[in-house]
Design a protein that fits this description.
Length: about 290
């Protein structure tokens, strides 16, 4: 553990500990800002609970906590490609960032919250992209993925903060903020579809990539008596996903009866929204998750 800290002093609100599967994680417990957990494996945020509230992020009870597998739930980082990439021929699925141990580079605490910063080591065969990820536990949960092209030629990449939100019952929630936006239905044809309904409601498996939108999205959950807002910057896509019963049953790290308790609202730059960086250029994508009664 000393090697992980590398001279970094932890404030009293932050602890370094061993989680399931002997994976190292940082825990945050703050009287004002609540609690959170972030694993070094994937720089993966697995939990955030505001003071006196309920968990905002969903985590599968069947998740694999192994060094060779992604954690199911929380906020996986999909990078430097999404799914199988633009041509659907890249492995591992959703890129290598969520399967690597990120390096802890800084921890700080101030009046705005507790911030943890991680860096993704660049291995042989990787794209020449340096990534830094900052997680701020404050009045809201803030995450920021900064990518720099350290190579000598332009590089294109995809990225997504694959956020799993905890809900009382996905069949009773409404997702607001995307009316009038175009989306690619990953379960349908290749042509974009315009969302004509004011809100998204769920009655079957849903997998949509909304394009050319920077809108904040609100998950209205009357069963939990709350509204979760996901605001973003540096992102032109929003992915909305729930696997429903059959797909959940087919995934070994997803409980058969867990799908009603979650919905993914993902901050992303994928497919036609992929980012191209010139040598030395940097791009930052952020998401801010807030909770209010409602």
């Amino acid at each position: 553990m000393r090697r992980v800290l590398r001279g970094i002093d932890l404030p009293a609100s932050v602890r370094l500990e061993t989680g399931p599967g002997d994976l190292l994680r940082l825990g945050v417990d703050h009287e004002r800002f609540g609690s959170a957990e972030v694993y070094l494996h994937g720089a993966h945020v697995t939990g955030w609970t505001p003071p006196g509230g309920a968990p905002v992020l969903w985590l599968s009870a069947q998740s694999h906590f192994r060094s060779d597998a992604a954690i199911r739930g929380g906020i996986p980082i999909c990078f430097p490609w999404f799914g199988g990439g633009p041509a659907d021929d890249q492995k591992p699925s959703h890129g290598y960032a969520r399967l690597r141990d990120w390096r802890l580079v800084a921890v700080s605490e101030d009046a705005d919250g507790v911030t943890l910063a991680f860096a993704l080591p660049v291995d042989d065969g990787d794209l020449p992209l340096e990534a830094t990820y900052r997680v701020t536990v404050g009045e809201a949960l803030g995450v920021a993925l900064e990518v720099r092209n350290a190579g000598e030629e332009a590089v294109a990449f995809e990225e997504a903060l694959h956020t799993y939100l905890a809900v009382s019952d996905v069949r009773q929630v409404a997702v607001e903020g995307l009316d009038g936006a175009r989306y690619l239905d990953r379960l349908g044809g290749p042509e974009p579809v315009v969302q004509e309904e004011d809100v998204i409601r769920f009655a079957a498996e849903t997998d949509r990539i909304y394009v050319e939108t920077d809108a904040a999205v609100v998950v209205s959950d009357p069963g939990a008596g709350r509204r979760i807002t996901v605001a973003k910057s540096g992102s032109s896509n929003t992915v909305v996903w729930n696997p429903w019963a059959d797909k959940a049953h087919a995934m070994a790290d997803f409980g058969d009866d867990e799908w009603p308790g979650m919905v993914c609202v993902e901050t992303a730059n994928v497919r036609t929204g992929a980012i191209t960086l010139a040598p030395g250029e940097t791009h930052v994508m952020t998401a801010r998750i807030e909770v209010a009664a409602g």
